[in-house]
Amino acid sequence: MAKHAAPRVHVRWWIPLLVIAVAASLIALILVNDTGEDSAPTAGSAPEPNPVVTEVEDPEQADVDQDATAKDDDPLTDGPSDAPVTLVVFSDYQCPFCAAWSKDTLPKMLEYVEDGDLRIEWREVNVFGSASVQAAKAAYAAALQDKHWEYHAELFKDGEPRSPSELTPEALTEAAETVGLDVDQFTKDMNAKSTAEAVAENAAMGTDLGAFSTPTFLLNGHPYVGAQPTDVFVDAIEEAKGSN
């Protein structure tokens, strides 16, 4: 289990860039509607991932102190504490782009974890609302039984997010049974006050750092926004490994 220093406070230096990205997305949706499309994608739908790479970089403050995201005894952290590279993922279980990234890129990231080159810290920011919060509690409960990735894969099965109706406590408990969890313990942990507090803390951590859209990533303190292609992460990890 990874153990780190206490969190530090940082300025929200990338918020203006995220606002620009959101504005650009809204303009794109307006243009789509003008061409005759019925409606824009909504939370829980699964549009095709945007292949455009958006790398956020402030030349005067390009890095974020990684200790800002670290917590002691965190069940959502995987990989050695002394790994040369740390990847923090801010996600949401109703986010179609998070689902696509989990299918296409996460398996390669887990290979780096197995090799001892990468530590992943997973954070649900729950920008889609209450169903996402419930799913985050369920994922945290699964992580307490050391089955975070198995449960994560079930919620993002086939690279698609679940609809809110598929993220009810009943549906999430069925998913727990599917991946072989102790359902009684899962239910207890999912409803525990400590789980709710951990989920709220993770969400606050994301918004405090400016992660208002999903997925957002910090790779050794360097931010990336959006469902980046796998090669973007592979290249960044290899470069970071080489510099250590």
Automatic annotation (TrEMBL):
Q: List each copy of the Thioredoxin domain by range.
A: 42-242
Q: Where is this region: Disordered?
A: 38-63
Q: Name one Pfam family in it.
A: Thioredoxin_4
Extract the GO molecular function terms from the UniProt entry. oxidoreductase activity
Output the Gene3D superfamilies linked to this UniProt entry: Glutaredoxin
Report TM segments. Answer: 12-32
SUPFAM superfamilies (alphabetical): Thioredoxin-like
Query: Of which family is this protein a member?
Result: Belongs to the thioredoxin family. DsbA subfamily.
What PROSITE patterns does this protein's entry cite? Answer: THIOREDOXIN_2
* Name by which UniProt lists this protein: Thioredoxin domain-containing protein
- Organism per entry: Brevibacterium linens
Entry keyword tRNA-binding = no
Q: Which UniProt keywords apply?
A: Disulfide bond, Membrane, Oxidoreductase, Redox-active center, Signal, Transmembrane, Transmembrane helix
Q: Does the keyword Manganese apply?
A: no
